[in-house]
Design goal:
Layout (H helix, E strand, L loop, with lengths): L9 H10 L4 H7 L7 H9 L10 H14 L1 E8 L2 E8 L1 E14 L2 E15 L2 E9 L25 E4 L7 H17 L9 H17 L11
Parallel strand pairs: 1-6
Antiparallel strand pairs: 1-2, 3-4, 4-5, 5-6
Helix pairs in contact: 1-4, 2-3, 5-6
């Protein structure tokens, strides 16, 4: 293990440590810091600063199994006329939801109809577009609220089309930028423009990648 390599799971490991009852002082000691160096622990927890793998060695050993279990996601998919479930392993780094105003019982409800999930697995990524079960992404109008899924367990409301493939960082950015462009131009959901939603997607992805210490050529460093 390279002692100077950054630990991408710093925040998630330390959250598990906090949930187990450890204080910031306890974390500092286990990370090999001075017990009074709790300001750095706070930065790890709150500011997206990454510790080294050497500093996280105890936490990886102690909480690594829990972290892996929390990184497993069950998804429902449809493709080739079949419905099936599959398990995806990775850290969810972006959940971008697209909502639309729908009239129901003389009220206007903002309903989530489509979303994009982005997972990190080591140095690769999954980009998973999903739609709410029962919703026609082609934009059929009017939308009948009784035809779309309203399960109490939110994750059961969503369907993925096909099995996602691992992407490089460059491929991920290219795909998400294309989706943002389609949202702005009314192509992602026909006749519905979501200009600010597309910008939010681009921002959310870059913010998450920057927290992982990844250099992005289109982000100007001043």
């Amino acid at each position: 293990m390279k002692t100077d390599k950054k630990c991408k799971d710093t925040k998630r490991l330390l959250k598990l440590a906090k949930e187990s009852g450890m204080t910031n002082k306890d974390i500092a000691v286990k990370a090999g810091l001075n017990p009074k160096s709790i300001s750095l622990v706070s930065r790890w927890l709150n500011d997206g600063v990454l510790a080294t793998e050497r500093q996280m060695r105890f936490f990886i050993k102690e909480f690594g199994d829990q972290l892996r279990r929390k990184s497993e996601h069950l998804l429902f998919a449809e493709g080739d006329g079949k419905a099936y479930f599959f398990k995806l392993t990775g850290d969810l780094i972006v959940k971008h939801v697209i909502r639309k105003n729908i009239g129901f019982n003389r009220r206007l409800l903002k309903v989530a109809l489509s979303r994009l999930l982005i997972f990190r697995k080591d140095d690769s990524y999954y980009c998973v577009p999903q739609t709410r079960k029962g919703y026609d992404l082609k934009g059929r109008e009017p939308i009948d609220m009784s035809e779309i899924s309203h399960c109490d367990y939110e994750e059961a409301n969503w369907v993925t089309f096909g099995v996602p493939k691992l992407l490089s960082l460059e491929e991920l950015i290219e795909i998400t930028d294309a989706i943002a462009k389609d949202l702005k131009e009314g192509k992602y959901i026909p006749h519905e423009r979501f200009e600010y939603s597309g910008q939010e997607l681009q921002f959310s992805l870059r913010r998450s990648l920057m927290k992982d210490g990844i250099h992005l050529p289109d982000v100007i460093d001043i």
